[in-house]
Known about the structure:
Layout (H helix, E strand, L loop, with lengths): L3 E4 L4 E8 L2 H16 L2 H6 L5 E9 L2 H19 L1 E13 L2 E12 L11 E11 L5 E8 L1
Antiparallel strand pairs: 1-2, 2-7, 3-5, 4-5, 6-7
Amino acid sequence: MHKYEFFDKTADAKFKAFGYTLEESFSNALEAMNSIVFKISEIEDYEFDKEMRELVVEGTNLESLLYNFLEESIFLLSAESFVGLVENIKIKELEGGYKLKAVLKGSLSINFESSGEVKAVTYNEMHVKQNDEGLWECQVVVDL
């Protein structure tokens, strides 16, 4: 299984992230989104000034949960210059929706070479589902 794959999309980026679990697919979706702007190996290998951030988001369905998770990550980057990868993630089904708690491990974005900016996540073509192979699949389009 590969973690994610990209598709051609004008002025946007479109990708599918995969996982054996729902949580793994969300984790890989964040990694895919971050890889648009940063070299993931730099974030994974960075040893100095590691920081943690906790995210808690809710959604009425899995798509809105994924949207809110990725948007909150974009907010951390724009407001605090923090870029991170998932260290720990839990998704719970609630009455009327879902709740996600994640711990991100990373550092300030100035420590990494950047190649642009992800402006926003869109609902355009978004889906979260189990595919025919039993893998969880998150499809996302982001504005660049």
